Amino acid sequence: ATEAATKPVTTAPVTEAATKPVTTEPVTEPEKKSGDANGDGVFGIADAVTVQKWLLGDNSAEVADWKAADLNGNGRLDVFDFTLMRRKLLEIL
Fold this sequence. Notes:
This protein is 31% helix and 0% strand. By secondary structure, the protein is mostly helical.
């Protein structure tokens, strides 16, 4: 029978990694402006044009925030919201 060769086992001490607390700045979402369909931060004619194009099926129309454009609050973006946008714009101008 052969004798099993024994090799010395070397071990290294295990140390816990030092952790440092990380400070991050709070992330604040931009304030949503009522009627701001295109997401530029203001409500204006460009938002009404965007919604009109979107309602007419124009694929180039990008509604950035449909919830901001849902002026009647029914959970949908439709012609009634577009009508309210037009009224609101007339009040502003």
